[in-house]
Design a protein that fits this description.
mainly alpha; 3 helices
Amino acid sequence: MPDGKGTSGPRTRDRDPGLQPERTRLAWRRTTLACAVAASLAGRQTLHSGIDPASLVVLALVVVAWLAFLALAHRRIRAMRMPRPPALSPRAAVAAVACTLTLAVLGAAMLR
């Protein structure tokens, strides 16, 4: 029965378990792989440019950002297994963006 807003009321059915959850899981995995490549390149850059304390600190921060993103992505991938996964929280979204920007900024700092 319509509720006067052009909809038929609250949804009571589960979402269609089609390919969308699988695409989302794959997107999280691709992004995690890209972050791993960025962290590996940062390590390689540190080894080739000479190991000094500043480079080691930057490399450690890169590894921490990558591990944080890995944990966040793994949690989201696990959530996508549920019939109605919860929406990505604003806190998790901000954390993912922060990890990505941190990797970009630290990568640029290593190229100095």
